[in-house]
Amino acid sequence: MEKRHLSIRVVPTIYHQLKSDIGKGKISDFVESLIARELGSSEKRIEQEYRECYSNPQMLKEAKQWEKTEIESWLNYEKNKDEK
Questions:
Q1: Choice between 4 and 54, residue whose per-residue pLDDT is larger
Q2: Which of 5, 30, 67, 78 has the lowest CB atom count within 10 Å?
């Protein structure tokens, strides 16, 4: 897989710790794995929040009310925009 170059800045203490704990030639792979794991966990958190919302009747009711309000606002905006 093609890789892209990315420059990041860290404080010297972090850099020295990475060099000593991970090894100078392995820092990129280590950082990449941390980022991939964090991005994956973010997606899982969002997915879990959606599941919780849809399994909670009160939250679902509120979401539908917000959706209706947003649609009405958009329709009013479009109507007023055309009248100007």
A1: 4
A2: 5
Contacts of 53 (CB under 8 A, 6+ apart): 59, 60, 63
Enumerate residues 6+ apart whose C-beta is below 8 A from 23. Answer: none
Q: Can you give the residue range of the structural domain that contains 17?
A: 12-83
What is the per-residue DSSP string for 17-55? HHHHHT-GGGHHHHHHHHHHHHHHHHHHHHHHHHHHHHH
pLDDT, residue 47, reads 83
pLDDT digits (tens, 9 = 90+) for 23-57: 989 999 999 999 888 887 777 888 888 888 788 88
Name the domain count of the chain. Answer: 1
Q: Are 49 and 60 in contact (CB under 8 A)?
A: no
* pTM for the structure as a whole: 0.48
Q: Is residue 57 one of the residues assigned to a domain?
A: yes
- Flag whether 5 is in a domain: no
